[in-house]
Structure formats: C-alpha cells, structure tokens
Design goal:
Helix content: 25-40%
Shape: globular
Radius of gyration: 14 Å
Distance between the termini: 27 Å
Structural class: alpha/beta
Number of domains: 1
Strand order of the largest sheet: 5-4-2-1-6-3-7
Number of helices: 3
Order of helices and strands: EEEEEHEHHE
Strand content: 25-35%
Length: about 120
C-alpha cells in the first residue's frame, strides 16, 4: 500500500478491470485526494466480512493478495464486461495492517459513503 496523507483527506479507490466472471480478479488501487480538487467518481461497496480470507486471491497492483470469499463473489458479479468499475471497498482500500491508517479512514467513512455516486450493499 502506498501511504495516505491525512491532511489531504486521501482515500484509495479500487479500479476493477473488465473481464468475465471466471477470469481472475485484476484490481488497481489508486490514491485520490478528497479536498481541494474535484472528487473522484466511485461507488462504495458495503459487504459482509467473512471469517475465511486466505482461500481467495485477487491481483491487486500486480501482487496476489488474500480477500474474503464474500468479497471475491461480490467483485466477480459487480465488474463490468467491457469497462473499468471504480469502487471503494474498506477491505481493500484501507490498509488493514496499519492501525493508524485504519483509524483515520474509519473516521472518514461517513464522508466516503455519502460522497459515493452509489452505495452497493452485498450480503452474499
């Protein structure tokens, strides 16, 4: 993960590449500033976190990373067949291993969801 600058209220968005359901997940994480410039257009995905994370993999910024089975299913169903889809997903867009980042991003979640073009709720 590239670091986020708190003073710029930055967030990461996930650009989900267009492929078929059976193809692997290819995702690019991009840092966006939310203050001082036009807001990036994105959709926020709220999904149920499952306990089983390690069995599902996605290629994120060229590196294989573990994601939950529920998120894997959601992303496969939500990706477009012929164009990128820009999403904010807490499980991927927040560095869960960085307590300081996670804390500051959780404080921004109300803003993140309200600024989204659309909020998608995925129950599985």
């Amino acid at each position: 993960y590239s670091p986020l600058q708190e003073n710029k209220r930055e967030l990461r968005v996930a650009i989900l590449a267009p492929v078929t359901y059976d193809d692997g997940l290819a995702i690019l994480l991009r840092v966006e500033a939310t203050s001082g410039s036009p807001m990036p257009e994105y959709e926020a995905l709220s999904n149920v976190w499952s306990q089983r994370i390690s069995s599902w993999k996605a290629i994120i910024n060229g590196i294989q990373m573990a994601i939950s089975a529920n998120l894997d299913c959601a992303l496969r169903h939500l990706r477009y067949p012929n164009k990128d889809r820009v999403l904010w997903v807490d499980q991927m867009c927040i560095n869960q291993a960085d307590d300081q980042e996670r804390s500051s991003q959780v404080q921004l979640m109300g803003f993140i969801y309200s600024a989204a073009k659309k909020v998608i709720i995925w129950l599985g």
